[in-house]
Structure formats: C-alpha cells, structure tokens
C-alpha cells in the first residue's frame, strides 16, 4: 500500500538514465521509503527545475539571492502536522535543482542517482518538521537521511 500520493513535474530533462529513466517511479521509490520510515502519509508535489528557476524561488520566498539545491514548502509550517487518520493530508511541495544536483554529485564523488535521492529525502523531511538549525536536529535529520538512503541501496560511497 502506498503511503503517498505524489505528483512529479519536470521542467527540465529528467537527468537519470535507465533503469531510473522514469521520474515518477524513482521519486515514488525514494519518498515511499522516507514516508514509511517516519510513519507519515499524504500528498506531495515534486518539481525538478534548473538553477535559474530555483534561484527565483529562493529569492522570492526566502529572500536569498542565489540558487540552492532543494526547497521545501510545507503546507502546515508552524502548525501541528496533519492528523494521521486523515485520508491524504497535503504535506507540501519539494523543488529540486537538477543543475545543482549534478554539480554536487560530482563534487561529493557519488552518483547523480544518490544526490537526487538525498535531495528528495532532505526536502521530504523538512516537509515533516525536521530541521538542521542546531546540532541535535542536524544529527537526527542527517542520520535519518542516511538510514533511508541505505535502505534503498544508495549508501554513501
């Protein structure tokens, strides 16, 4: 049973080759693992863009005048998370820069597949109230990210 309803839009060419050539299937695999691990369900929208588009979003919504790798727009920011008995609460939107993912995969020496998955999980955890504003939060969030990625075979190389 799927825990999530996921809408995937690519404003740029999907960057992963076969067997990951289907954006919807890849995103579902990654985010379903994350949802299962933290025990949530709901609706998520994922948008893949270039650096120019994410730069504009970052400037508009965060007042940060530069591109970034991933942005999350939680629907319940600052409020209690949705009731788990709701059929499909809207969790929010995740925006990933494919340009930034490519650069970071090369810089960190791992696959583009792992970097895109990392950014998806990172954004998803933000949608669900996780943050890395302090050392304890960072340890928890980054530990969860690694656990989820290892669980789908994308451990750090």
From TrEMBL:
GO biological process, one term: rRNA processing
Compartment(s) of residence: Cytoplasm
One GO location term (cellular component): cytoplasm
Pfam families hit by this protein: YbeY
Keywords for the protein's UniProt record, in alphabetical order: Cytoplasm, Endonuclease, Hydrolase, Metal-binding, Nuclease, Ribosome biogenesis, rRNA processing, Zinc
SUPFAM superfamilies in the cross-refs: Metalloproteases ('zincins'), catalytic domain
Cofactor: Zn(2+)
Residues that bind Zn(2+): 122, 126, 132
Cofactor binding remark: Binds 1 zinc ion.
EC number: 3.1.-.-
Single Gene Ontology MF annotation: metalloendopeptidase activity
PANTHER family tied to this protein: ENDORIBONUCLEASE YBEY, CHLOROPLASTIC
Protein role: Single strand-specific metallo-endoribonuclease involved in late-stage 70S ribosome quality control and in maturation of the 3' terminus of the 16S rRNA.
Family: Belongs to the endoribonuclease YbeY family.
Protein name: Endoribonuclease YbeY
The organism's taxonomic lineage, starting at the top: Bacteria, Bacillati, Bacillota, Bacilli, Bacillales
